[in-house]
Amino acid sequence: MNTLFTILLFLLLIFFLLTRRRRSSQRLPPGSLGIPIIGQSLTLLRAMRANTAEKWLEERVRKYGPISKLSLFGTPTVLIPGQAANKLVFTADGGTIGNQQTKSLRMILGDRNILELSGEDHKRVRDALVSFLKPECLKQYVGKMDGEVRNHLEMHWEGKEKVTVLPLMKVLTFDIICTLLFGIERGSQRDELLKNYKRIVEGMWSIPINLPFTRFNHSLRASARIQKMVKDIIGEKRVELEQKGASSHQDLITCLLSIRGEDNVISENEIVHNIMLVMTAGHDTSSVLLTFIVRLLADNPTIHAAVLQEQEEIAQGKVSGDLLTWEDLAKMKYTWRVAMETLRVFSPIFGGFRKALKDIEYGGYLIPKGWQIFWASCMTHMDDSIFKEPAKFNPARFENQASVPPYSFVPFGGGPRICPGYEFARIETLVTIHYLVTRYTWKLCCSDNFFSRDPMPVPTQGLPIQIMPKKPL
Q1: What distance in Å separates the CA atoms of residue 382 and residue 345, rounded to the nearest whole number?
Q2: Which of 117, 420, 134 is nearest to 270 (CA)?
Q3: Which UniProt keywords are present, listed alphabetically (predicted)?
Q4: In a domain, 177, yes or no
Q5: How far is residue 351 from each of residues 80, 98, 268, 373, 413, measured CA to CA in Å?
Q6: Is the residue at 54 inside a domain?
Q7: pLDDT reported for residue 132
């Protein structure tokens, strides 16, 4: 009798598991996972490079509806575009949705950065980063950033008739990161970091096949070199902090090393991996934003005139040689609205990934535990039900920030997941635009408004412009 009962129980269990699996598979979102490992990765990457990625997403939504399954960068994925999806991604508790980038990004940047951590680990490391990047701390660095921008213009713009904007903006933002966040002065060490970082970027959104001829392999090797360099820098900063009494807030690395206590200490790997992340976020996103502002000001004389008027009023109130201050930045309201609208139309971050930590019911379908969740910023940024005439460049949209629906404008994320470097990016952008518009006029050398994504937006030829210096005020 006991044997019969055991067999019956076993059969019932098998039946339950089979019917549950069948029921779950029937409730998976529509779509196809495609070819193993490759999935839809190549078609998405091709669309991004052809600047048709928004259409690619829209076609998926038309074909499958507002939620669909696919495979991206070697992982089963669910695409969930829209305002409700953004809210789910940015506000879900740490036990439901976890931070997770693509396998290629995770292997290149490391698995202990805040884009990978969840729960208490995420809060601990995020709080450590915010302790350096919060506005009250950044106020003291406005003058230092001012000096970096002036020095950059003297080295790379002064005396030139023509410059290419994007590569120069990448040099500027990398210099600012090295000086303010890493405490690395100009020289061979900084040059070596930049050379390897360029290799890293090439393989961030790639199929994670580690063969010698692939972009992914080249990026992995460059990542290993940079991580070794960062560890050496950490060693030097630790000596300065412990033996020479260096200020804990002289740079981000020293700040993270100075954190003490069992509950909030940051490991060396966490410092290294978050430095890798900050390097990526601060370098590419800001350089892209600045480049497209330059292009948009050239294309929109009325907007350029309004920005120039605001910045000249600030410049006229200063003695020659005075550095910009935190109070000056607070007056640059229109300029920042121009930057916000630029981020809406040409968001540096096309989209991002999360991981389902348990089965999630969403939109009438099941997102299985362990699957990747893909969200895309353009699906709300260019939604005409949220932003009227979305293709039109209109900074007035951001005159009243409260009028923008929550979780519809997400270039920096949202909710508790908002980018901790938001304020740093604002300062960097405003200081740079101030000196560009007050010192130069320019016109585009290429009328082609095309741009591709690789994965960040890249304008044709890197945006060459003809520049004319202005007479001092």
Answers
A1: 7
A2: 117
A3: Heme, Iron, Membrane, Metal-binding, Monooxygenase, Oxidoreductase, Transmembrane, Transmembrane helix
A4: yes
A5: 11, 16, 29, 10, 10
A6: no
A7: 86
CB 268 within 8 A of CB 259: no
At 351, which helix (H) or strand (E)? Answer: strand 351-356
Q: In what order do the strands lie in the sheet with 75-79?
A: 68-72, 75-79, 372-376, 351-356, 97-99
Cα–Cα distance, 119 to 334 (Å, whole number):
38
List the CATH number of the domain containing 341.
1.10.630.10
Nearest by Cα to 298 from 472, 465, 471, 468:
465
Q: How far apart are CA 38 and CA 220, in angstroms?
A: 19
Strands (E), 73-110: 75-79, 97-99
At residue 473, the pLDDT reads 55
Residue 80, pLDDT score: 93
Model pLDDT, residue 26: 57
Confirm if 279 and 129 have CB atoms less than 8 A apart: no
Asked if 214 contacts 201 with a C-beta cutoff of 8 angstroms, the reply is no
Residue 23: per-residue pLDDT: 44
Task: Copy the structure tokens of residue 415.
Answer: 């909710």
> What CA–CA distance (Å, rounded) separates 446 from 259?
49
- Measured in whole angstroms, the distance separating CA 150 from the mean position of its chain's CA atoms is 25
pLDDT at 472: 64
3-state secondary structure of 26: helix
57 domain residue, yes or no: no
- Structural domain range at position 465: 84-351+362-469
Instruction: Flag residues of the chain having pLDDT under 50.
Output: 4-12, 15-24
Tell whether 419 is in a known binding site: yes
How many structural domains are present in the chain? 1
Q: Answer yes or no: is 66 within a domain.
A: no
The C-alpha atoms of residue 191 and residue 188 are separated, in whole angstroms, by 5
Q: What is the pLDDT of residue 204?
A: 77
Q: How far apart are the first and last CA of the chain?
A: 100
pLDDT, position 3: 55
Place of tokens 């016109």: 443
Residues in the chain: 473
- Max Cα-Cα span within the chain: 101
Do 254 and 239 meet the contact criterion of CB atoms below 8 Å apart? Answer: no
